Task: inverse folding
C-alpha cells in the first residue's frame, strides 16, 4: 500500500505532530459499526508500530497499518485536507473513503 499526503495535509500534520520522526497508523475502526464491512478509517499517532504492522510506502510521514485491513483499501491512497476544517480526507483515484478522517494523538 502507498499513502501520500497533499501539501496542505503535510503542513497541517507537521504542525500537529511535533518531532521529526512522527509515525502514524491507519486504523480501520469497527467498534459499534455492526459489521467489519462498515469500518471507519482513522489516523493515530504512534511511538512505534505494533508487532505485525506493515509499513506503507509513500511519505512524507511514516504510516503503518494492520495487514488484515489492507483488503478494505486500494493500493494507493491520498490524505488531503480542507482549510478551516478539523479533519482530513482519505481518498484514492477511484473513491473517497471519508471526508472526516480524524487524527488521534
Result:
Amino acid at each position: 500500500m502507498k499513502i501520500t499526503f497533499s501539501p496542505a495535509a503535510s503542513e497541517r500534520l507537521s504542525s500537529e505532530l511535533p518531532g521529526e520522526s512522527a509515525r502514524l497508523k491507519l486504523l480501520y475502526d469497527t467498534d459499534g459499526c455492526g459489521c467489519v464491512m462498515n469500518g471507519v478509517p482513522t489516523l493515530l499517532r504512534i511511538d512505534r508500530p505494533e508487532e505485525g504492522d506493515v509499513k506503507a510506502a509513500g511519505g512524507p510521514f511514516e504510516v503503518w497499518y494492520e495487514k488484515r485491513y489492507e483488503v478494505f483499501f486500494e493500493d494507493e491512497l491520498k490524505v488531503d485536507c480542507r482549510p478551516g476544517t478539523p479533519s482530513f480526507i482519505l481518498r484514492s483515484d477511484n473513491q473517497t473513503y471519508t471526508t472526516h478522517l480524524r487524527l488521534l494523538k
In short: The chain has a mean pLDDT of 88. The two ends are 23 Å apart (CA to CA). The chain has one domain: 2-104.
